[in-house]
Amino acid sequence: MRKVMMILFIGFLGTTLQAQDKAKIEFKNDVIDYGEIAKGSNGVRQFEFTNTGNAPLVISKVSSSCGCTIPKKPEEPIAPGATGIIEVKYDTKRVGPFRKTISVYTNAGEMPKPIKIKGTVLDNTKSVLEKKN
Question: In this predicted structure, what is the pLDDT of residue 38?
């Protein structure tokens, strides 16, 4: 009888844990490719995401792998089924190829969720000279 009660209790506990509400973040794209962009051009891009869970999604922190990339997170919780935006600004005064990772910390479980940007900033002076020749 004890074993039966223990099995029922464990089964009940497992069902209860699975029934808990949980947020889930799903990005439309987790990599943004800037391609080739001119030095000093607009470095702002947006990562769109959806809360596909059944509880409000709270983004507690977004951080970049370097000071040349500035992420901005939504301040309010994202309701289940709703979409949100994480804005990322890359410093396009730095010439050359780049690959940066932004870490997104949420209450959705995966800690942190990485999103990435990449591209190449071209020196305007070189581009103008190459076109003349």
Answer: 96
